[in-house]
Amino acid sequence: MLLAIGAGVVLLPLGVVLITSLMPTGDQVGAASITLENYRVAWDRGGFLLAFANSTLVALAVTALQILTSALAGYALARLKFRGKQALLLLVLATLVIPFQILVIPIFLVLKWGHLINTYGALILPTAANGFGIFLMRQYFQTIPVELEEAAMLDGANRWQVVWRIMLPLARPALVTLFLFTFIGEWNDLFKPLVFTTRPELRTVQLALASFQEQFTNSWALMMAAVVIATIPVIVLFLIGQRQLIRGIATTGIKN
């Protein structure tokens, strides 16, 4: 009963959005009680085709870079022995308590110095590495028995082969978890495109949604249709990877 109540509280706003997006507007009133025309109108007027392409490109690029940097740095912090490792780990953890908005001015100056403002680089590079991803991968690598690495090295594998052929395949739940967190975060990000870009051709889904809401403040049905359009890819992605996501979160930090 408590779960049902909690689910109802969470799903009620989403249900209102969906129902409102199907309501007829303007000359559609009286023709049908439910219509999908709002989605076609919202898609065309909001310019979501270009926005979807830009958001997909940026989200996939950032996700790929974060997976690469997090996997390598996480493995180094979990397995390699070097001076200052604990201090480096504390430094990585310290980045988690610093909001991105506080760093926006120095990041903007660096991007301006590198002539990256109003480019895809301005949307990708500032979040190419992430302390959360590094810590997540480090914790998951510690759950993998070190004997597997030792056996591989006895068979002649070097450190790179151990990472790419043994550790990363075994860390698939953590990688999928990091992929989902990063992709969804980048897909929903409004701050970076708003600050670092002004060119219409670089507009992302969240910018398109914000501008759409400014233009159609009197048409709730169209606005809700635009919200559903922007949300569908995230929902589909989560449904595909939910098992690996739950497994990755549940097993991270458990040592053998």
TrEMBL record:
<dbReference type="InterPro" id="IPR000515">
    <property type="entry name" value="MetI-like"/>
</dbReference>
<keyword id="KW-0813">Transport</keyword>
<feature type="transmembrane region" description="Helical">
    <location>
        <begin position="220"/>
        <end position="240"/>
    </location>
</feature>
<comment type="similarity">
    <text>Belongs to the binding-protein-dependent transport system permease family.</text>
</comment>
<feature type="domain" description="ABC transmembrane type-1">
    <location>
        <begin position="52"/>
        <end position="241"/>
    </location>
</feature>
<dbReference type="GO" id="GO:0005886">
    <property type="term" value="C:plasma membrane"/>
</dbReference>
<dbReference type="Pfam" id="PF00528">
    <property type="entry name" value="BPD_transp_1"/>
</dbReference>
<feature type="transmembrane region" description="Helical">
    <location>
        <begin position="117"/>
        <end position="141"/>
    </location>
</feature>
<protein>
    <submittedName>
        <fullName>ABC transporter permease subunit</fullName>
    </submittedName>
</protein>
<dbReference type="GO" id="GO:0055085">
    <property type="term" value="P:transmembrane transport"/>
</dbReference>
<feature type="transmembrane region" description="Helical">
    <location>
        <begin position="162"/>
        <end position="184"/>
    </location>
</feature>
<keyword id="KW-1003">Cell membrane</keyword>
<feature type="transmembrane region" description="Helical">
    <location>
        <begin position="48"/>
        <end position="75"/>
    </location>
</feature>
<keyword id="KW-0472">Membrane</keyword>
<dbReference type="InterPro" id="IPR035906">
    <property type="entry name" value="MetI-like_sf"/>
</dbReference>
<keyword id="KW-1133">Transmembrane helix</keyword>
<keyword id="KW-0812">Transmembrane</keyword>
<feature type="transmembrane region" description="Helical">
    <location>
        <begin position="87"/>
        <end position="111"/>
    </location>
</feature>
